[in-house]
Specification:
The structure is a homohexamer of 160-residue chains. By secondary structure, the first copy, chain A, is α+β, with helices and mostly antiparallel strands. Helix content of chain A is 28%, strand content 37%. The first copy, chain A, has a five-stranded antiparallel β-sheet with strand order 2-4-5-6-3. A two-stranded parallel sheet of chain A has the order 1-7. In chain A, strand 4 and strand 5 form a beta hairpin. Chains in contact: A-B, A-C, A-E, A-F, B-C, B-D, B-F, C-D, C-E, D-E, D-F, E-F. At the B-C interface, helix 1, strand 3 and helix 2 of B face helix 1, strand 3 and helix 2 of C.
């Protein structure tokens, strides 16, 4: 595998659909936040693995925003892609929208940013093939990922 | 909404990914067949709803074939699309492959054909907008769906 | 164990009961089809194992028919038995009815036919002890299983 | 419905089979006790409902004994029947054995006694149709149920 | 580890909280008994392990009493502690109450007594460090545990 | 209820224990991140409800850090408390450690910060009773919560 880079689209997930079942609801009758976190955690991990062809370990999740409640029967559409890679880590952005299959109306449900590190068989971090943003949207996310990382490091420094 | 027809691609799912967890295994250490049926049943129902914008009821499933066992850590890639519509019913074809995220090798796991009927608020069957196959592959599936339906009806007649 | 044969009743399940929980419902408030498939898949596999005393692998499922919706609180009664054996494969028929525990009214929910192959420790198919139908009903299913197999093989030939 | 009585066999479950999945294990690799309690609780409730055709509420569970550990791939065979009825309550006895589908060896896994009360639509206890033990075994359990009830009442008195 | 004893408080759980989800309900819309048994079984086992630092095996559960139904949105508060130890076995008492987070009203849901035995790596029972009751309440439970054991043994003798 | 304030300890959870089951593992044999997120999401929501006696809605989750992998049989100990309240929102901090019940060794597993808003019956945000930090540790967290909020707001501004 060449280390020149791999386009975002090669590992991105753009149309993962999940219908909200009674099973997925919290006691107030809306989609349980813990359930949607479980869904996007699995999804982000698959994108990370697809990008680098290795076992990836979640280091953290940042800026999870619950934007609207989803309801029974809504169809969740989940999107996830590698926003940026650094030496041994990468940011995977996740977005969930809910679609009413009758009216086709959509509303934003969740957005979140996962940080993964790729590891070898001894659980040591290994270098990651760089991601190559191609579209305008991908380049925007690539640049924002760097800002988020700066914020993250600044915040961690300020606490210790 | 015009009744002229809707292309296959408008409702098709082409990259639904699910990682095989320890949770998904049968006592022999391979992906539990009942689990994969649960996954594809949800998926086929979403495709049916997306195509006709209505509640859809599963009438039957035919020719489910388990082609290879999947294992812990495999990434399942599921595809589903409307193959053909008749007056109030439609056939949704489903295919599952497993991808090794390291070697990128793929193997076929399952194929199946679901028959749905669209219903109105009184649970009465309603007319479905015709599906329009566009690619060569879609046209092939469109024609095969008719043969499967003929077999199905012949078989049902022969039993009663 | 003699290879002369084993009666249907020795491995059949005739009264497997499951109450429909809120947990088992789809977004429309009826029993989720994927859930009932999971139940009958487990059950058919147990019947197959009981018949031949070996690990059995599901090859396929045919003619799954959803006959009526089941509701919260219904008691599902599941039946499964070996209909016919061939050299290394066997057909297991499954039927699910729902019983209202107050009125004792029953309605048919699902019927399906599973094909299993018995395997040895190296996952090689092995000969299966023949099943011996005894009642009129069992003999009818034995004969119909042969017809279904003929249809299945004809259908597979017609597609390739 | 006559109040003369209903035989034990009319509501008894004698062959409820469940295969032990990886999903059902505790961290030590044996069947999780909480999982088997969940299974038998559902089963006992169905037997109670079948006997009296009403919603039944669990008052208590006594003398649960875990007799042997079950393992992955074991086939659990569960039995449950009404042992005795009193005015508005009844005892349902449950037994679970594990069967090795290869050797057909069996071992006892669990026994337990459930007490249910039947209720009407206002959740008030209602009279239960008496159970009629017919076999020697059923008569033995009928008599033992009375002793267990005496113990239970004696114990409750001694604590308050 | 000294064999002098370990206070009850060292292993007790006094505030394990669980919200009742739609997922946890039986078909009648109240907390499923099998679900609450699963919760307390896990909890009692953790208390037993914490007390003796070893794998513990459940021998039995006695005097499970369902005192009131819990409903969707109730917050269950679970308590568990070692009541008494004998040579190789111990009794763990469990209590569950439900709290309405608005009114702060509480009602009793369940009480139960678990008997565990500690085992070594060969699954042989091993001596357990004695539990030391300190508060008045703990001493009361310590004494009652002995009475329950006497009842238990008397009952078992009377049946065989 | 007086609006003067409520101490942190009144709603805090300090010893929520959960044993890691085979069921909770990812394909690599360690605790699935999505599962632990589900656990802490439930827990944080209970603390929020307990603090303000109202339905609380999750707005976001920040700075989730996976500090070490947990393994099968580890006992997770979860802690959660209200760090700071603002007018209609509050921050709940969550920490998970894993304890080996044999060696009593502990390792940090996860830390995260949840932001909730309390709502009335019309889902409108309502004023929250202020939290009163009492211990040195609680005061430290109270102050840090303000810094985190500043970071959060700064970051949101920088993106729009």
């Amino acid at each position: 595998m060449s280390m020149e880079g791999k386009p975002v689209a090669a590992s991105a997930i753009i149309d993962q659909v999940i219908e909200v079942f009674p099973n997925d609801l919290n006691p107030h009758g809306t989609l349980f936040g813990g359930r949607v976190m479980q869904i996007v955690d699995s999804l982000a991990a698959i994108v990370a693995k697809r990008h680098c062809g290795r076992v990836c370990v979640t280091l953290g999740i940042d800026s999870v925003r619950f934007l609207n409640p989803a309801r029974r029967g809504d169809i969740l559409v989940c999107m996830a892609s590698v926003n940026k890679t650094w030496c041994t880590s990468m940011e995977v952005g996740v977005k969930v929208i809910a679609e009413d299959f009758r009216s086709l109306e959509q509303k934003d449900i969740l957005s979140a940013y996962f940080t993964f590190v790729a590891v070898d068989d001894d659980h040591k971090p290994v270098e990651i093939i760089p991601v190559l943003p191609e579209t305008e949207e991908q380049i925007k996310r690539f640049n924002e990922a760097e800002k988020r990382r700066t914020f993250r490091l600044a915040q961690e420094t300020s606490h210790h």
